[in-house]
Structure formats: structure tokens, C-alpha cells
# Entry
Amino acid sequence: MSVVTRFPPSPTGFMHIGNARTALFNWLYAKHHGGKMLFRIEDTDRARHSEEAVTAIINSLKWLELDWDGDVVSQFSNSNRHVEIAEQLLHEGKAYRCYCTEDELREMRETAKKEGRSTFYDRRWRDRPESDEPQGIEPVIRIKAPLEGETVIEDSVQGTVRVDNKELDDFILLRSDGTPTYMLSVVVDDHDMGVTHVLRGDDHLNNAFRQKIIFDAMGWDVPVYGHMPLIHGPDGGKFSKRHGATSVEEYRDMGYLPEAMRNYLLRLGWAHGNDEIISTDQAIEWFDVKGIGKSPSRFDFKKLDSLNGHYIAHADNERLYSFVQPFIERRLDTEISETGHKRIMLCMDELKKRAKTLLQLADEALFLVKEAPFSYDEKAKALLDHDTHTLLMRIKGSLETLNDFTHVTIQDVCKEIANDEMEGKLGKVAMPLRAALTGTTVSPSIFHAAEILGKDEVLKRIDIALERTG
# Structure
């Protein structure tokens, strides 16, 4: 059997990190088995539908570098097919028309509550003859759920899960306006698209029992279900905004790499021994549902930062530049010049070893592309006071004499000054120089940075700092 999975988000908002993990697991399972992952937008809820959300979901998948097979399918566009199946079930006596009004349903529920009974619909129209049908009321169509026995789901994650059929109601297939419900649409689409495996959050487990009723009524094969525990916040509660960012786009904008995000989401509920750093190729080779845990996983931002730092440090420099470039240009409010690009690439090996996120990398690379004069942060301002004027003058004078302007010769100059004036404390010389050249007190090796900036630019920036300290 060829494996076919699907990723079916509802376009009512951003793509939640839990949805991203669902997409990743379905993608890996399909890739592992040489199968396909289909992409379906479940957009039957037209009142809450958002084209912006559709675009955001597609962009999030693309950023995560998770591809799909075939075109993106709109569930709403298949509405006629869903209606056709509901009418077939009605014709075969496996569904029926219900003419209850909203007032009758409300009264039914209130009476059941008072009597301590289930508030499920009481099936009053299930076996009534057509002659009882009232005029002027548009009916809904309900499935005839089994009344006895139990429904069993052989779940690939949860194991065997059972429910007494008395716990299942005659749920609605078609609303009174003729539109299909989510429960019907999902089953019809899964069948028509040839879906063989459904991996999703365990908040859908109750839906599986209801969806199986439709599969069985139609005589269709039931997909293999796998219901995964949800992602919780660090405190064990449901992961939400109070814990931090919840959407894929937010993590992208916070400076995480897609490969780091994939690796982190993979380990958030799935394990392969004690392995933590897992490449995409390894993930495809190793992934199976047996590795999915049965308990909720907790989001750990420190682990994500650590993973992201690893992937940044080991990233191809040109690829890394393509990711960090937009962050730097937003800070510059202009495009990076050719000179700026060259400087960043020369410094990238140092920059990437220091960064946990692309935001941090962008902040530390900014001095390489800024045009002098530029502003100084508060700590740099504190260093560039009247007392450092003489020191900067001597640094400038010594650097001007260098014919071979390299990090080694620059450092030697600073060491000599430190030995003469700072009791050998190189930092007492390097820190003011760093403030003058970068506008900050945090950067890669200031001697390497000075070499990359070049002699003319270094002297120019020191002159500007001298105007401040003079």
C-alpha cells in the first residue's frame, strides 16, 4: 500500500506551532515510506475564512521547507461532492431528515439536563414517517449512528481505543441551508484523495469515532489514525500566547532557522534514542509513529535557542547570509551595499559562532554595513568620554603607520599601547576601540573586525569618535 498523508489546516488565523508539528510528522511519515503528503485547506467555515490566513499557512510551510504533492485543495470547492454523499446516505436509509427547530432543540437539552440525562439529540426524527414532515421547515440531515455495541479505533499512537456507541450521537451531515458539515467533508475528502494515514492532534480523537461511522456507512476503508498528544507550555498548561510566540511566522521573525525549527519540533513529542541533533535526511530515514510519545510535550525555549545556535554555527555562509540579510536591511532601512555584503561574508565565521538567533547575528553584523557617522549605544557612549581621547589619538597614530593592516598587526599595536599605558590590560585598549568602530560594546574580535573594515574606514571612524571625546 502506498502511503498518503495529508495536512488539512483551517484558514481562520495564523499557523500555530502545533499545526507545524502536525505538518512535519505527516511530511516525514510520507517521505519515510516513499509516499505522498497532500495539502488541503479546510475552508468550509466561510464566516471565519480568511484568504490572508491561507497565504500565511502556505508561506509558513514554504519557510519550514515542507513541500507537498499536487495542488493545494480547497475543501469548500468540493461541497457538491459532500452533498452528493449525504444524499446517497439518505437514499440508502443510513441518514434521515430532522425537522427540529432551534427552540425544540434548546428545550430538549434543558429537559435532559434537569433529568440528568445526556444532552445529545434524542433521535426523535430518526424513524418517523415522511407523512409527519412539517411544512415550511428546512430540515438538517443526520447520520444514523449505531445504537448498540462499541466503536473501536486501532490508533497507531494511542493503541486500541474504544467508545460505547451510546456515547455517539446522530450528528448532522448537512445543515438546513444545505451546506455540509466539517465531519462529513473531512471523510469524503480523505476517501476521494486516497488518504491512507491520518496523523493529527489527540484533540481530534473524538472526531475519529464519528468519522468512522461515515466511513463504515459508505463501505469505505478507514485510514490508519494516529492521534498525537498536544504541545504544552513550560508550565504544563496548554501552549498559548502567555507562554510566548505561538505562530510559525513569529518564530521566523524572531530569527530561527527552518532546519532548527524542524529539528526542535521533531523532538517535541518524538524520540530516536538520545539523539538531539537530527538532520532532515536522518529524520526521514528514522521517522515512524512508534517514536511518538503518549504524553504531552513541553515547549522549552532554551532548547530551541541552543538548537538554533548549533544550526547557525554550522550553516553554509551564503545561505546564512540570505536569511540574515532581511533582518539587517530592516535595521538599515535600505539595501546592503556590495561592500557591506563583502564585509559580512568575511566576518561570517566569527559572527555565526556567537549567535543564537538571526536577530543577534544581525545586531552584531550591523556595524559592518552602517555608514559613519552612526549613533552609539549607551554603553559605548560611556566609554567614549573625555578620558579616552588621548588613548584614541595614540591608537590612531599607531594604526596610521601600519603598511600591513591585518588583525595580527592591529592587535600587536594595541598590546604595545596596553603594556605602556594600561598595565598590560589589552581590554582597556580594545573596548574603546570597539566602541569607536562599532558603536557598541559587543562584537566579534575587534582586531578581525578592523582588518575587515580596512585602514581608511577604521581611521575615519576613530576620527568621528575623537570629535565626540575632544
About this structure: Residues 343 and 452 are 6 Å apart (CA to CA). The chain is about 50% helix and 10% strand.
